[in-house]
């Protein structure tokens, strides 16, 4: 049973990697260089571009990874600095939600680019997984 | 020793996940895509980065709408939750009157939102509306079309009329599930009415109150139809809440990029506040 679950998730992981590779092949070429911000489906109503497609692929990857972790290593919820019982999934949710607000606050206070905000968000996420 | 959680049951929600993917996730993905691009129609998009988010964050108009929205939701929760509990506590527990009250309380919930707006729009009019005419006859200068305070009062009273019964019905269901043994024990201890409420009824209603608070918060924070029908967001922008402003931006001005960025921030704010409510209200139920 455990082996079949691991095999299933390995296949999912490979599909995920294949998806990222496929996305890079869909990036349009302009002036003999890849236009990373060009439309992946010109004329399509969903208006996909590589950065947003990569964003959702990473979120999907995180969900797959945490689902596998939850099945492979079942855990007991624990109480952290916020005083609430959290599982790994809860901590991921708190990290993602908090990171969104950190980037928005960075954008509001410091303006573009938001790489600094992203770095703060990563530190915040690490802190959430360690202490919350 | 604590029992470890087995999360395999989550696979059972896969069919729902597939449905939600079509009804919610795909539109959400599209909104994210629109929020980082600009368009002039014809499905032609141009990369704009985070420009729209910056514009929305610095917009005075949206900040004002957010302020109005928070104030509105706070007032709604402050009135509807205690009032709903009070009504539920005073509803008959059994017999014909219990059924009558249940039907009566359910009536406002059955009326479509735009009809509620129309009812109150007519009801509040000074020339032909019962409320407006009666207040004018009493010498009260009431006119929700011109006066911002009157417009706010009308919208709040309308929402209270429409939705308090939801809170009352949820609380009533919570109260009905309390076994008689609790009340008998309270009588033996000669507990006062307040103590029965504080230590028996309120803790037993916590679960349904959580649902009531979350539903009423989310609904009031996203309110659109009723104030739009009654006041149209006016006078001026006095009752222009976030969703009215968002629709003006997306449909009225066809600014899809800024509107998408605005709706994502709006979504994140609702998600955050709902999470905080949920966490605070379930904190006491958790075992250490």
TrEMBL record, chain A:
InterPro entries (alphabetical): DUF2160_TM
Signal peptide positions (record): none
Keywords in alphabetical order: Membrane, Transmembrane, Transmembrane helix
Pfam families for the chain: DUF2160
Listed transmembrane segments: 7-25, 45-71, 92-109, 115-131
Lineage top rank: taxon: Bacteria
Protein name: DUF2160 domain-containing protein
Highest classification ranks of the organism: Bacteria, Pseudomonadati, Pseudomonadota, Alphaproteobacteria, Rhodobacterales
TrEMBL record, chain B:
Spans through the membrane: 12-36, 70-89, 95-116, 151-175, 196-218, 259-280
Superkingdom in the source lineage: Bacteria
Protein localization: Cell membrane; Membrane
Keyword Membrane: yes
Main localization, broad class: membrane
Record-annotated ABC transmembrane type-1 domain positions: 66-277
Membrane topology: Multi-pass membrane protein
Keywords from the UniProt entry: Membrane, Transmembrane, Transmembrane helix, Transport
Similarity annotation: Belongs to the binding-protein-dependent transport system permease family.
Protein name (database record): Sugar ABC transporter permease
Organism: Paracoccus marinaquae
Organism ancestry: Bacteria, Pseudomonadati, Pseudomonadota, Alphaproteobacteria, Rhodobacterales
